[in-house]
Write a structure and sequence with these properties.
InterPro entries: ICE_relaxase_PFGI-1 (IPR022391), TraI_2_C (IPR011093), Unchr_helicase_relaxase_TraI (IPR011119), WH-like_DNA-bd_sf (IPR036388), WH_DNA-bd_sf (IPR036390). Pfam families: TraI_2, TraI_2_C. This is Relaxase. By secondary structure, this protein is of the alpha+beta class. The protein folds into four domains: 221 residues, Hypothetical protein af1432 (Orthogonal Bundle); 146 residues, no CATH class; 181 residues, Thrombin, subunit H (Beta Barrel), CATH 2.40.10.200; 34 residues. Helices cover 46% and strands 11% of the residues. It is built from 23 helices and 15 strands. 34% of the residues are buried.
């Protein structure tokens, strides 16, 4: 396998100096200028050496070949990233975070690669022949997957005042760095493919080019065309996701032991991300938060929902109830408590430009330094006033002006709906404990209109049929023509209203589909695992109900009560993407899957969508062997 590659490398000395460096802290002068490190110094920490050892264990080659193929590119990578962080305030945001994240992703990717037989659908002999080429493609893609951040996101300044670019290697002088506020994230992969030419030896590219499928997948992925990179892109996205979850303390299978971040720190990181990336702060009109000299005031429900969605996306367990989430924030002094030791501040807002909402807002108050470590990054103070009023005993889950509006517009009698659910539950054969199965029978009875059986004939109908049989054919024709004309007039008067309602519902249904598709294509939503909201069952996509729809509404910051969830499910049904379940002469929109495992009475309820390509593209999918579809 490596004979041709060995010939490509010139005979060079591969000896390395055995330098032992105690390097736990950066070398900085009193003004904060960071001294540059050599690659040997940067990689000579216990954790980073363990990552290198893990990589060595995953590949099968001589030490000399390992040095040429992987060790030297990793050393050049270390020289480029130095002590730069991997993100401004998210995962691996510490000094040296970029190097740690890069090594973690490489280690995870090399491990995950063992679960794939590449290239797909090739004969075993060809797969064995190309094994090492695909492994190299995985490792090289992991190496450059985030390197573009060092140029797009960060500005490096040398002590002599000149700007330094990462592709120049080790900085020639002490340096400082700062994050660029307006940055183009789509440039990350573009610059990654550019810098790959500096990191990866030409001989390695020459060798990989002899395996066109592996080479093209690597080039597509480096350039950001993940949809054309196939399994290669999937491996790196999973590895990156695992590294992020590991840094944030998520529950994953760890390659090496690393410090676990407390839930308090996870909350701070999540709220910081939500405030800086999702919310509109100190707007002249309506917004999500307002910065004053007394602190940062933010919408309580909006922040709770967005924070929960963010943490759930990182694989971190978080309380589903807002009260409990606020209790956690108070316990860790993330938010400031009122005089009554409650989390919610009820306030009236008034802007200097005349904007003055009538309703009081339920807000959280946060110290600005928790969100912005650098005072220069803070937005302008709110041009107006925020007046605290006496707190009232209200439902925290139904606060904020948008929730009030939703309640006003509600047309469903929730009391009747609750009574209906209780009647249905009485018909349930066995109690199902899974949270997503509490509405099993209720959901199974949500039949579409075309599934309604034919009603029995009344006496009037029978009598009318008898009269029709006595009429002459030409008389019947005239009556039918008159009836059709009248129906056309009636239909015309109703069609405009119906089309408006229908198009609006379809649009909302497609918004959910697009959200789910983007989540799955970008590996931001897991499937086929124990807590997943979607699964592959019988070669179809199984969308768990109602939790998948609740998650969508939560992430979008929308009301996610029972009525809203049911409405969204009806709007999804109108798209006609799902396969209906035939039960005798009737049909239902929902399917049940029995969970095969210790919980023998556990079921999942959801929609079955045959068109998996709509959500996964050409990705190779495997059915979840722990779920059995009930026909």
């Amino acid at each position: 396998m490596f004979k041709s590659l060995t010939k490509l490398f010139k005979s060079k000395s591969t000896t390395h100096q055995n330098i032992t460096v105690e390097n736990p802290l950066p070398r900085q002068d009193i003004d904060g200028w960071i001294m540059p490190y050599s690659a040997v110094e940067l990689l000579d920490t216990e954790l980073r050496q363990r990552y290198l050892a893990l990589l060595w264990q995953q590949v099968s080659m001589t030490r000399e070949m390992f040095n040429n193929l992987y060790q030297k590119p990793l050393e050049r990578y270390a020289e480029m990233v130095q002590l730069l962080p991997a993100s401004e305030s998210h995962h691996h945001s510490h000094l040296g975070g970029m190097l740690d994240h890069g090594l973690e992703v490489i280690s995870f990717a090399a491990k995950l690669r063992q679960n794939y037989v590449l290239p797909l659908n090739a004969v075993p002999e060809e797969q064995a022949k190309q094994k090492d080429a695909w492994t190299a493609a995985v490792i090289y893609l992991a190496l450059v997957h985030d390197i573009g951040k060092t140029i797009v996101d960060i500005e490096i300044q040398l002590k002599n005042g000149k700007r330094w670019f990462a592709w120049n290697g080790v900085p020639t002088e002490p340096y400082k760095f700062k994050y660029i506020k307006q940055r183009d994230y789509e440039l990350h992969p573009v610059l990654g493919s550019f810098i790959a030419n500096y990191l990866i030896p030409k001989e390695a590219f020459d060798w990989l080019a002899t395996y066109p499928e592996a080479f093209s997948s690597l080039m597509y992925a480096m350039a950001g065309h993940y949809d054309k990179a196939g399994a290669l892109s999937e491996i790196i996205q999973k590895a990156d996701q695992n590294s992020v979850a590991l840094a944030l303390g998520g529950d994953i299978t760890k390659l090496v032991q690393a410090p676990v971040i407390s839930f308090a720190k996870q909350l701070v990181l999540a709220i910081r991300h939500v405030v800086t990336q999702k919310l509109k702060i100190s707007e002249k009109g309506p917004g999500d938060g307002w910065l004053t000299e007394h602190g940062l005031w933010v919408m309580s429900k909006t922040v709770a929902d967005q924070t929960r969605a963010y943490l759930m996306g990182q694989g971190i367990s978080v309380p589903a109830d807002n009260r409990k989430l606020f209790d956690e924030m108070q316990a860790h002094n993330i938010i400031e408590s009122t005089a009554d030791d409650t989390a919610i501040w009820y306030c009236l807002l008034k802007a200097d430009n005349g904007w003055k909402p009538k309703d009081k807002f339920s807000l959280l108050r946060i110290k600005p330094e928790i969100i912005w470590e650098n005072i220069d990054d803070r937005p302008l103070l709110f041009a107006g006033s925020i007046n605290v009023i006496e707190s009232e005993k209200e439902n925290i889950d139904e606060t904020d002006s948008e929730s009030i509006i939703t309640k006003i517009n509600a047309n469903v009698d929730l009391e009747q709906l609750s009574e209906h659910k209780e009647e249905v539950y009485q018909k349930t054969e066995a109690e199902i404990h899974n949270r997503d199965n509490e509405s099993v029978d209720f959901l199974l009875n949500m039949f579409s209109q075309d599934s309604i059986g034919t009603a029995e004939k009344t006496n009037e109908v029978v009598k009318a049929e008898a009269e029709i049989k006595t009429l002459k054919p030409e008389t019947i024709s005239n009556l039918v023509a008159q009836s059709v004309a009248q129906d056309t007039i009636n239909d015309t008067t109703q069609s405009t209203h119906i089309s408006k309602v229908s198009s609006s519902s379809v649009q909302r249904g497609w918004q959910f589909v697009d959200w789910l598709k983007n989540k799955l294509l970008n590996d931001k939503l897991t499937f086929n695992d124990r807590t997943a909201k979607v699964h592959i069952v019988d070669n179809c996509l199984f969308i768990v109900s109602p939790s998948s729809f609740e998650m969508y509404l939560q992430e979008k910051g929308l009301t996610y009560d029972e009525e809203s969830v049911n409405n969204l499910q009806y709007e999804f049904q109108e798209l006609g993407l799902h396969k209906k379940r035939i039960i005798g002469d009737d049909s239902t929109n929902f399917w049940r899957c029995k969970v095969i495992g210790p919980r023998k009475d556990s079921f999942l309820v959801g929609y079955l969508v045959p068109d998996t390509k709509l959500f996964f593209g050409e990705k190779l999918l495997i059915n979840n062997r722990h779920l059995l579809l009930e026909e």
